[in-house]
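Example A, followed by Example B.
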Amino acid sequence: MCLYFVSDVKPPKTGFGWKVFLFGDGFDINNQLHISGGLGTPTVAGRLYREQDHLLPANEPYFVGRWNVAVGRTRILARDGIKYSRGFHIYRHKKDAIKRLLAYYNTRMVVRQVQYEQGIAQGTDCQMEVIVANRMKIIRHKKGKAS
């Protein structure tokens, strides 16, 4: 994912939002994500993997309840022609993350609430509000709750 439009307004340095993840089930991660590299890498059942941000290798799961730190400091060119620093792309609203999830037509994707620190940019992706941050912590999911 990348931003379509980058806002001139600085993002909050900390806050909460929503992110889409691949839910590990032991099958090859690349059969679902259509990405290069790591072919034949199985996912670990019950772990969360990257959706599309490419900040961790495909076969490395995110930590739940601990801070995940974005690697690399390259800049991304948004569709409006503005460059912004690479980081975790986090939806401000759960309904928007669910829209993104539904676009995949993939039952292996899940939406989880996250906390972020070091907000570095904000803008929109398909008219949905997104924060880009250097640090993200996945909030522990309560069993029995949808998405």
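Example B, a separate protein, is given below in the same form.
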Amino acid sequence: MSVAIVVSGMYTGQDYIDLLRERIPHDDLYTATYTGIKMPFEPDFRMDEPVNTYHPLFDTNPYPDGEARGRRYILSKPLSKIPKRLKKLKEPSAHWHKQILLHAWACDQIEADVIVRARYETIVSSQIDWQEWIDKCHEEEMTYGFNTRSEGAEYNTYHHELQKCFKGRDSFYINDALIIHPKEALDWGYVNQLYKDKKLRGAEEGWYQVLSESQGHYHLSYHGGAYSAKDWELVKDAEGLHYISD
């Protein structure tokens, strides 16, 4: 079994690749971003940033769950009427499908059995046995998604412990701070065609669409284990999380 970490997305200056190298067992690590993005090192892959020809949230029908309908309802409001903590999502939501295109394109150019997808700002727990989850992925050919949160009573409030997402809304939603998936589950041709047909969804919905729905609805999401450093304000109160790099 070969394992590749693929770190991709828009580079914003936050970079925790060294933690990924240290904490996640792997054979290779690749980086990818868009053409023209300035970085302190040259990534392995650069892709021309996809052109927005549709909105991946407002121009696609919601899945039959509260999360999908709720996002569309809230973010379609004028900015002044959107809750403060969600305001920052309105403009970026138009670009949420691009990360999926970039990752699928990069994966199409490498050889591996299991892919660990991360963002440049992803911080993974030092206390999770990631080899166990890589083995599960390989043996069961299933995709696993992880994300730590400390807000809301429905969330697991621990960073170093995992809690399976049981709610129905998570059935159409893959937590995406860190995703472990079989390489064969992701088809670049399929992803690109969805984009051309203006059907590729964005963010957690999009990951579900291309990694689980395409495989007959086959994934599990967990609270805990990984988070984006840019969401530190939403995470800092999680148990076992006292420093940004823990």
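On Example B: The mean pLDDT is 86.
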